[in-house]
Amino acid sequence: QVQLVESGGGLVQAGGSLSVACVASGHTFGTTGMGWFRQAPGKERGKEREFVAAISWDSVNIYYADSVKGRFTISRDNAKNTLYLQMNSLKPEDTGVYYCASSRTRIPPQIPSEYNYWGQGTQVTISS
């Protein structure tokens, strides 16, 4: 059974930094594209899930949403089955529940429906 478990969320002031991680088990993490999505407050899960970043199985292909480009960094450690998201220069609009997800392909798309496994999410709150 595939499990994705996020950790590292929390509360930080605007301009600060936060790092979240996702540990995977039960599947071949090293051959799977991975992504981070977020859901803003008031949005029901499954609706309005916003793409944040994605990384291919070999870390060669990396994609970011325009809203986080230059501030966030996605990375992975296949030996540890772990996906990371380093978030710098945080803004109040970055607030939300952050989900990691495993895609159906080695090079991940930016569409939530192309991801077949999801973590439970971790809350990130940025105060102004």
> Can you tell me the overall shape?
globular
Count of strand segments: 11
H/E element order? EEEEEEEEEEE
How would you sum up the major sheet? 7 strands, mixed
Radius of gyration: 13 Å
- Structural class by SSE content: mainly beta
Mean pLDDT rating: 93
Low-confidence stretches: none
Helix content: under 10%
Q: How many separate helices? A: 0
Proportion of strand residues: over 45%
For the terminal residues, how far apart are their CA atoms? 40 Å
What are the main properties of this structure?
128 residues; mainly beta; 7-stranded mixed sheet; 11 strands; 48% strand; globular
Summarize the structure.
With 128 residues, the protein is mainly β. Helices cover 0% and strands 48% of the residues.
Fold and architecture overview:
The protein is mainly beta. 0% of the residues lie in helices and 48% in strands. It contains no helices and 11 strands. The strands form 2 sheets. Strands 2, 4, 5, 6, 9, 10 and 11 form a 7-stranded mixed sheet that branches. It has a 4-stranded antiparallel sheet with strand order 1-3-8-7, with no helix packed on it. A hairpin with a 6-residue loop joins β5 (50-55) and β6. It starts with a strand and ends with a strand. The mean pLDDT is 93.
